[in-house]
């Protein structure tokens, strides 16, 4: 039986080069490439459609070429990665079926190929906004440098004194500022 090949356009947020100082709009670019929407036969990979992407403080250190950091730096020219919520489009893994909602590390792109789906978590509770899984429901939050002021039904708000140097750049990518990137 011939393997079906489906492709789609895939918008990606890419780090142009390592950043020195505060990240700025010119440090990023939006690229469009083609992506296969199905996994290769016999693969345990999962293809997902990203719904929500997280923008977290630790990501700033990944934009630099630091040695000895607790997280590896991003690779310039490649999509940025971070926590995301996604819907499974195709799966070769027995624990994930088409249509399942998952959260875990994904690319800042419309579609991601997850080659290690054991790092994903299936979302069983959809009675809360899915975007919460990129933050308060999706990960342990150790001490953070800003204060959560209030949690509303649809978004997390930060103190009005909070100012992110990349606010303008993230707004280019249709961000529900300050925390969620919607694709």
Automatic annotation (TrEMBL):
The keyword Chaperone does not apply. Residues 11-122 form the Oxidoreductase N-terminal domain. InterPro entries: ADH_N_2 (IPR041694), GroES-like_sf (IPR011032), MDR_fam (IPR045010). Keywords: Oxidoreductase. The keyword Oxidoreductase applies. Coiled coil: none annotated. GO terms for biological process: response to oxidative stress. One of its GO terms (molecular function) is 2-alkenal reductase [NAD(P)H] activity. This is Oxidoreductase N-terminal domain-containing protein. It comes from Rhododendron simsii. The lineage of its organism: Eukaryota, Viridiplantae, Streptophyta, Embryophyta, Tracheophyta.
């Amino acid at each position: 039986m011939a393997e079906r090949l489906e492709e789609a356009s895939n918008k990606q947020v890419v780090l142009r080069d390592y950043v020195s100082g505060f990240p700025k709009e010119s440090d990023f670019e939006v690229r469009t490439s083609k992506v296969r929407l199905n996994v290769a036969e016999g693969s345990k990979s999962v293809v997902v459609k990203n719904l929500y992407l997280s923008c977290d403080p630790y990501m700033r250190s990944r934009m630099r070429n630091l040695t000895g950091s607790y997280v590896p730096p991003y690779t310039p020219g490649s999509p940025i990665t971070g926590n995301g919520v996604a819907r499974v489009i195709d799966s070769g893994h027995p624990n994930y079926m088409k249509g399942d909602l998952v959260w875990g590390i994904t690319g800042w792109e419309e579609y991601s190929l997850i080659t290690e789906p054991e790092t994903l978590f299936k979302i069983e509770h959809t009675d809360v906004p899915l975007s919460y899984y990129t933050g308060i429901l999706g990960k342990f939050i150790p001490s953070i440098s800003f204060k959560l002021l209030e949690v509303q039904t649809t978004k997390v708000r930060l103190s009005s004194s909070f100012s992110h140097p990349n606010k303008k750049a993230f707004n280019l990518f249709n961000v529900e500022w300050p925390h969620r990137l919607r694709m």
